[in-house]
Amino acid sequence: MTIRPIRLFGDPVLRQKAAPVVDFDAELRGLVADLTDTMLDANGGGIAAPQIGVGLRVFTYIFEDQIGHVVNPVVEVVGDEEQFGREGCLSIPGVPMDCRRHMYVVTTGFDMHGEPLRLQGSGRLSMIIEHETDHLDGILFVDRLDPENRAAAEAAIRDAEWSGGVVPEIRVSPHGPLRVTG
């Protein structure tokens, strides 16, 4: 379909909660195609609709050559195990940081035709699912960073050519950073 411009950190659409999809129609199928083409063109692991300026609860992903999408995702954490790994964002280019995520998640939602789907993720796929679902709630991965990594992200964003030396507000996620227990 179409490769769309990716909205960058500081664009207000990235901080808004996306609306649930109610119409599973040709327009939605076009959106999924545009998201997929944009994600692949940008060499990303996933992309959410708000990242191309569309306030709907849809994301696409690619993991181990499997391309998929989820409409109206609901994520359930499985177990207490966590992971700490490098994470980046197409809307914050060139600023990968170590971020803490859950090791296992199960996502339920729908495909673009309105059929129910269930996606289980562990490791990297879990990170992608959580990252993209956060976008649908107006949360960016930098919001989940610990204070040290948040400060490093702010410095990297300030130095990034695309930011013009300005660092938009990095919030503390309402869900907070994950903590290692034990």
Topology:
Layout: H1 26-41, E1 46-48, E2 58-63, E3 66-77, E4 82-89, E5 92-102, E6 104-110, E7 116-122, H2 124-136, H3 147-159
Antiparallel strand pairs: 1-2, 2-3, 3-6, 4-5, 6-7
Cofactor: Fe(2+)
EC number: 3.5.1.88
Binding site for Fe cation: 89, 131, 135
What report would you give on this structure?
With 182 residues, the chain is an alpha+beta fold. It has a single domain, classed as Alpha-Beta Complex (Peptide Deformylase). It contains three helices and seven strands. It has helices at residues 26-41, 124-136, 147-159, and strands at residues 46-48, 58-63, 66-77, 82-89, 92-102, 104-110, 116-122. The strands form two sheets. It has a five-stranded antiparallel beta sheet. A two-stranded antiparallel ribbon has the order 4-5. A hairpin with a 2-residue loop joins strand 4 (82-89) and strand 5. The N and C termini lie far apart (48 Å). The mean pLDDT is 92.
